[in-house]
Amino acid sequence: MKRGADPAQHPPAVGTAAAVDLAFMGHVPWSLWVLGVGAWAAADVGFSLAVMALTMAVPLAWNGVILAAFCREVLAAAPRAAWLWTLAHQSVIWAFGVSFIAWISGGWFRLFNP
Q1: Residue 4 within any structural domain of the chain
Q2: How much is the pTM?
């Protein structure tokens, strides 16, 4: 049985309310990024989609650190397991997001076949 899979043997370090609060705090990097990009675009000082895409690395990495800490502290996962769960979670979230963008654009062939 995985560590943290049995709540009786490995009770969470925080209560349910705090766990939910910490889960939502994982969105802070993306919220700040959206506010910053919106302000940058509104300022009309040379907005670039390529630079905007590159700046996504900051909230992506920051969110990964927050999510791994959540897995360690709330789910009582070992450090390696926490990073693996984080990688799996982020992979699924990004796959769904990119697939949704492809779907609303008319399909993958529309994105990669000009």
Answers
A1: no
A2: 0.74
